[in-house]
Design a protein that fits this description.
Order of helices and strands: HEEEHHEEEEEEEEEHEEE
Largest sheet: 12 strands, antiparallel, barrel
Number of helices: 4
CATH topology: Porin
Structural class: mainly beta
Number of domains: 1
Amino acid sequence: MKPTATAIFCAGLLIPVLIAPPVDAAGVHAAPISMVNASPVQLLFLQAPPDRAKTLSRGTGRLTVSNSLTNTLLVEDDPGPAAGVIDMEMLRTTVDFNYGLSDRIEVNLSLPLALSGGGFLDDFILDVEQAFGNARKVREEESPGQYHFDIRRGGRRVIGSDDHATGPGDVALRLKTLVFQEGDAMPAVAARLGLKLPTGRRSRGLGSGGTDVGFGLLLEKHFGSVAAFLNADVIFPGDIDDPEVDAETFYQAMFGMSYAFTDVWSASAQVAYTSRPFSGTGLTMLDRRIVDLLLGITYQRPDGFFVQAGTMEDIVDSAEAGADITFFLNLGWHF
């Protein structure tokens, strides 16, 4: 990925944020920002994107184009049965279409597209880490702008790609049902079902090659201008057809809050936990759970057009397991 082209693309996405005029309208801000950890390994499987419990009204819809730029640097090359290197930047665009089949049932179709390469954020991230005195050794030893995606076990590759992992990923279908409406003390409660189809090429590191199924429970509660959300999901990954590794059941959970400053602007903070579809591989990048923090803002016009921007970063001790940092800009329309 050429830095100039990427910079122009990101600048183009930011234009609506900079020129959109402020308006007085009742915006829809009471929803978490739908972003998942963009580790190239985790993206192989079905994800549980943050979502609210309440469903779209019958006959209404939402179209969202989510754009994220993620830098990942994970290196484990000690002698042993397993070794891995993930050194890349990924520009990922996901088109989501949501539609209310009834006032209590909502469907979602998710179509991802990934464009990966060496990128241009390596020097910037190193400068920031050094400024705060917590630069990772692997970051200081890295040659900026490199692309590597190669995870091996038993001397053979199990995940990765020689070429840039660019192309469409696995398509996901989701169904959400509102079980309980929000009351004075009772939060809104919904259940969701997810299905991932193996449309991404496993040989290019764009899919697991299996069909995944997930089940989740969503809670939502409002306190004036503040909205709180809790998601809990279990994912059953399909067989990845490799003798060296087996995918197993994993879990995801998210707690988030949003605050509406006005009918136009709101801010969100979300903490997500992701266990892993692997265990006992001998690689931290596959075995260790991931915890990440998302901070974002939302701007919505009265005609339903909205923009979301922010960042997501691994926290606690997830630096050697997940994506390093993600910047996102989402464009959408309620209709």
